[in-house]
Amino acid sequence: MRRAFLILVPYTWLLALFLVPFVIVLKISLSDAAIARPPYLPQFDWAEGIWAFLAQLDFENFVWLTQDDLYWKAYLSSLKIAITSTFFTLLVGYPIAYGMASAPPMWRPTLMMFVILPFWTSFLIRVYAWMGILSNEGLLNQFLLWSGFITEPLVILNTNLAVYIGIVYTYLPFMILPIYSALERMDGSLIEAAEDLGCSRTTAFWLVTLPLSRPGVIAGCFLVFIPALGEFVIPSLLGGSDTLMIGKVLWEEFFSNRDWPVASAVAVVLLLLLVIPIVLFQRNQQKQQEADT
Amino acid sequence: MSIPVFAPWDDPLAHPLIQFKNVSKRFGQFTAIDDLTIDIFEREFFALLGPSGCGKTTLMRMLAGFEAPSEGQILLAGQDIAAVPPNLRSVNMMFQSYALFPHLSIWDNIAFGLRRERLPKDQIEERVTEMLRLTRMESFARRKPHQISGGQRQRVALARSLAKAPKLLLLDEPLGALDKKLRQETQFELMDIQEKTGTTFVIVTHDQEEAMTVASRVAVMDHGKIVQVATPDKIYEEPNSVYVADFIGEVNIIKGTAKPDGEASFAVTWSDTAPPLTALSQTTFSADQDCHLAIRPEKIAISADKPEDAANAVQGKVLDIAYLGNISTYHVELPTGAIIKAQTANTRRISRRAFTWEDTVWLSWTASAGVLLAN
Amino acid sequence: MNRMSWFNTVSLTLGFAFLYIPMVILIVYSFNESKLVTVWGGFSPKWYGELLKNEAFLTAAWVTFKVAVASSTLATVLGTMAAYVLVRGGRFFGRTLFSGMIYAPLVMPEVITGLSLLLLFIGIGLDRGVLTIVLAHTTFSMCFVSVVVSSRLVTFDRSLEEAALDLGCTGSEAFRLVTLPIIAPAVISGWLLAFTLSLDDLVIASFTSGPAATTLPIKIFSAVRLGVSPEINALSTIMIAIVAVGVSIASLVTKYQMTRQMKEEQEAERN
């Protein structure tokens, strides 16, 4: 009795507020295009039965996505931006994680807290902070002009570069933490053994440390890549009008063009794009767990 | 005046406290308990002994009510307890990990079960104080479990499980987490407390010394079955199988074929060249039946010359000597290639040792020293 | 690993500078007298005063707070139940689907979650407002709570629950008297996580809120789209300060408790 209640309550909640909405998105993505006004055709009619309903569904919204190059360009550009910024996050995050893992054990909890702290701070505010820094009259340009590196202010805000900076900045903790925990678990005597067997410090890093931190690196990359792909806030605040990211397109399709069937189709395709990295990520985590036990 | 011997298992009129009747327990394909029948009597200190995975913990968890038998009946004081949930059984358990509640003080841990019975405050107070005194933990009552040592935690766990004065106390590897010295001290303490409270104890252990020390009877288990139930001395002196003989203490097993050669006496042929051995046995063997002669190393004498009147004597070469301080074990290789272990007490200093490596020696034992086993 | 080379020192310094300088700048400029956000016009707390006079922001902040308290509390209850079912529930019909639904929202892009929930609310004719935001936030944050709580439950020594049953507890008493007090820290951090996620959320709230209910992130977003403003700087500073104080207190408390426990354990073994 008690067990059934425990299972049913969260189960029903998730079915009603996660799975059902999702089925609705799928259904609407297969409906006829219409601007803003439900009901969308076809509607399910008990009298006609399920097959008549299914027969009326079509893929015209998806065909539309392939015909209008705005959409596939947006998908491609999202992929490009997500991959590039994941790479840069790794480049910035790895040395920090390495530095943390090498710090005296006494400091580590404090360093850890300082990495997590920004995560608790509003995402929006962290993105917003860069607007004041990167704008044409912003602090970065002021500093560069003052120091004489440049004579003309650089245009950074509202470009893809600003988006990269924003993603690296906001998702950095997601990269640092898994790498740090992989490095921290590593037995220090392994490096000593490598050096004892004739490695220099650098070769020991390449031959021992890096391979052993690989699961952390992979986890970190997925944790940055997956949310970056569907990102909306960063491209809309830091990116320019030519910054195409699928999250932003979906938002505009929905709020500006008010074409919900197309917006739903965009969402379905975005999800299909995400399935592959998510499955790969799951596998990596599972392998990691198995290795631990 | 003689002290009455506590042996209800020999009394046909005694009513057992616990009866397992043809109990089986399966987990999917795996059979943990296989058609097991056993009686345990009141005031017994009953030990379940066996290697890990032999089913002893499952047996105990069925008594506590955490597992239900797949088949058969478990009776407690004559009543089937299958339908009684663990919280309503007058059976308490002391867990291997002690399972002390980390957020409660020692006092509250011990009072936990009493409070569930909604006893009046002063009764709870009285009982907890009594338990603290019994386990000599009075001065630690206000501490949390992490503020006391491992040995003290063990005592608190015992006090907590005894507080409700259960008919039956189950102890799951109660001393497993303690170091050897503390374990030996605690064994006597356990026996003392069992005697004082008069509670029936069932203990699960894989440590044969522990089982032999504390228990009134020992059940040796293997693959979900009980191989032998007997008092510790019988288990050691009269094992009923090679498995029990081998599991309890050290033993030499000599394989051969038996031939009756007198009243309860058998000649054991074990080698083509050597003369047969003589062994007494109450169980009868037919001619040429396969048998195993089990002899404890301490029952084998070692000497330089062939002893005159020994029932059995074999010659061999010293291969290894294990010096353990109080005793030495000699590994002697026979011409057949078999290795026999013989133990001698080191009553003299080691420099006066009579034998050394590669010496040729004689091993001898009496006809009643060994036990003749069919399997 | 225990080596502090110059390389490590430099990478840590630069890394933390990168993480914190933008926020420090934000805080410094919130005290700027000048309306022009990039020009320093002298120290002044006047934007904080302006902020307090801004009715719209205050209303939105109050709505956000209400939504966060309601949704995180609901999410903690549901998430803890879900975690318990996942770790202790054994097998039941549709278990795979259930665990899938727990983990999927963690990686689901917010735009999709928001869109799908909006379509549901329209479909069933639920007016968008505080209630719909609470429902939406509860749904995605209960999954985070359940991950936090289930990772604690996995390491929970089951014999503690069995001991409680053995000593006469019913199943629910065992949960209330033993399990819950012991996993309480995880449940509390789950609640805090759900609370912050709700406070922070822009995208899902934008989809599921109606004209009647605007949350603070929505308000901030529409303000900063027009550019940097000193009032937003002041607001951000207040939010950063709250988080910083909260997190430092929390980590100091845990650190103190851990060192105390370790010391007591060592003392106990010595006696």
UniProtKB/TrEMBL annotation, chain A:
Cellular compartments annotated: Cell membrane
One Gene Ontology term from the biological process aspect of the record: transmembrane transport
Pfam families membership: BPD_transp_1
Membrane topology, from the record: Multi-pass membrane protein
Domain ABC transmembrane type-1: 75-281
Domain of life: Bacteria
InterPro entries, per the entry: MetI-like, MetI-like_sf
Key words, A-Z: Cell membrane, Membrane, Transmembrane, Transmembrane helix, Transport
Transmembrane portions of the chain: 74-98, 110-131, 161-183, 260-281
CDD domains cross-referenced by the UniProt entry: TM_PBP2
Main localization, broad class: membrane
PROSITE patterns, per database record: ABC_TM1
Gene Ontology cellular-component annotations: plasma membrane
Entries under PANTHER family matching the protein: INNER MEMBRANE ABC TRANSPORTER PERMEASE PROTEIN YDCU-RELATED-RELATED (PTHR42929), PUTRESCINE TRANSPORT SYSTEM PERMEASE PROTEIN POTH (PTHR42929:SF3)
Family from the record: Belongs to the binding-protein-dependent transport system permease family. CysTW subfamily.
Protein name, per record: ABC transporter permease subunit
Species of origin: Tritonibacter litoralis
Lineage, broadest ranks: Bacteria, Pseudomonadati, Pseudomonadota, Alphaproteobacteria, Rhodobacterales
UniProtKB/TrEMBL annotation, chain B:
Keyword Repeat in annotation: no
Top class in the EC scheme: translocase
GO CC term (a single one): ATP-binding cassette (ABC) transporter complex
Cross-referenced SUPFAM superfamilies: MOP-like (SSF50331), P-loop containing nucleoside triphosphate hydrolases (SSF52540)
Keywords annotated in UniProt: ATP-binding, Cell inner membrane, Cell membrane, Membrane, Nucleotide-binding, Translocase, Transport
Gene3D superfamilies per UniProt: 2.40.50.100, P-loop containing nucleotide triphosphate hydrolases
EC number: 7.6.2.11
Domain of life: Bacteria
Functional summary from the UniProt entry: Part of the ABC transporter complex PotABCD involved in spermidine/putrescine import. Responsible for energy coupling to the transport system.
Subunit structure: The complex is composed of two ATP-binding proteins (PotA), two transmembrane proteins (PotB and PotC) and a solute-binding protein (PotD).
Identification of the protein by name: Spermidine/putrescine import ATP-binding protein PotA
Source organism of the structure: Tritonibacter litoralis
Taxonomic lineage of the native organism: Bacteria, Pseudomonadati, Pseudomonadota, Alphaproteobacteria, Rhodobacterales
From TrEMBL, chain C:
Entry-linked InterPro entries: Bact_Polyamine_Transport, MetI-like, MetI-like_sf
A Gene Ontology term for the protein's cellular component: plasma membrane
Transmembrane regions: 12-31, 60-86, 98-124, 130-154, 174-194, 232-253
Domain of life of the organism encoding this protein: Bacteria
Occurrences of domain ABC transmembrane type-1 (ranges): 61-253
Topology of this chain in the membrane: Multi-pass membrane protein
Protein's cellular compartments: Cell membrane
PROSITE patterns on file: ABC_TM1
Single GO biological process annotation from the record: transmembrane transport
Assigned keywords, A-Z: Cell membrane, Membrane, Transmembrane, Transmembrane helix, Transport
Family label: Belongs to the binding-protein-dependent transport system permease family. CysTW subfamily.
PANTHER family, sorted: PUTRESCINE TRANSPORT SYSTEM PERMEASE PROTEIN POTI
Protein name (database record): ABC transporter permease subunit
Organism: Tritonibacter litoralis
Lineage: Bacteria, Pseudomonadati, Pseudomonadota, Alphaproteobacteria, Rhodobacterales
